[in-house]
Amino acid sequence: MVGAVSGQVYIVSHEEDVDGIGSAAIALRNTGSRRLYLVGYDLSAWADLGRLLRKGCRSNGSIEILISDLNPGKRHIEILAESLVGCPSKKISWVDHHVWRDEVLSFAERLGYIDLYIDRSRTATENMARFFNVESDPALKPLLELSRDTDYGLFRHPLSEPLTDTIRYSLYAEGDKAFLKRLALKFSKGVFWDYEVDSKWALAIERKRKAIEDIRNNSREVVIGGYKALVIISDPVVGSRIAVRESGRRGYDLAFVVYKNGAVIIARGSENINCAEIAWKLGGGGHPHVAGAQIDPGVVSRGFEAVVEYLRSRI
Fold this sequence. Notes:
Elements: E1 10-14, H1 18-31, E2 36-39, H2 43-60, E3 63-68, H3 74-83, E4 90-96, H4 102-111, E5 114-118, H5 124-131, H6 141-151, H7 160-173, H8 177-188, H9 195-217, E6 219-224, E7 227-234, H10 240-247, E8 254-259, E9 263-268, H11 275-280, E10 285-286, E11 290-294, H12 297-301, H13 304-314
Parallel strand pairs: 1-2, 1-3, 3-4, 4-5, 7-8
Antiparallel strand pairs: 6-7, 8-9, 9-11, 10-11
Helix pairs in contact: 1-5, 1-8, 2-3, 5-6, 7-9
């Protein structure tokens, strides 16, 4: 497929991992646009994005949006739709690889201006490369490798874990989205490591060491929904697969990495479990092998037992 996208497109991508930054980088490289907005799933951030898009349409009389690596709930799409009411010409191309809930998929399709490009067998970065028909571009080969290595939790590439650490530290410890935008621009030029990234990583490693000590003291195996579940409470600077690895636990059916900001990542230890379906019960979504949701941070602040009780009440 070849996406017909102009240089004035608004690029929106997932803010917290290599795949989100990587798919944004391919969009930057192939459109020349510098209108990049990185978001997670917080509804207030989507409301801010909606106001920005509304303003853009009012200024130009039309708007074109390219979204990648984001698995929305119905409310996320409602916010976009509400922001574009009255916009005479609008187009959204949505490139993704998550499992979408049927109600969300049908709602997006009914709007009539969202074109979906979803291939669950590939990463968002790989799908974006296909969208622009640049899969054979040799400059993108390392980025495609990194996206798959990180998104599938393999961490075999020497830059996979350092980049994951750096991205999460920048976002969750510093709130430095400007750095993440610069990182996407670096990726778009085939630059994956330089002095700025190295300096940020040095700070990330120091915070990560302390977080790993806490992980080893805040992980426990319990029964949730009939599953043997590993529950970990963690600082969000540590990626979920890294948190599970550093817990030292094995033999679980499901792992719940519960972050202090209320984010929950669900990973399976058994192939016959669909994490996306479990995440739906918590209001989230994702992939069969890994999925996520958001719970009230107040539950997490009340401690391990409160978290387990909450998960048991929903699953």
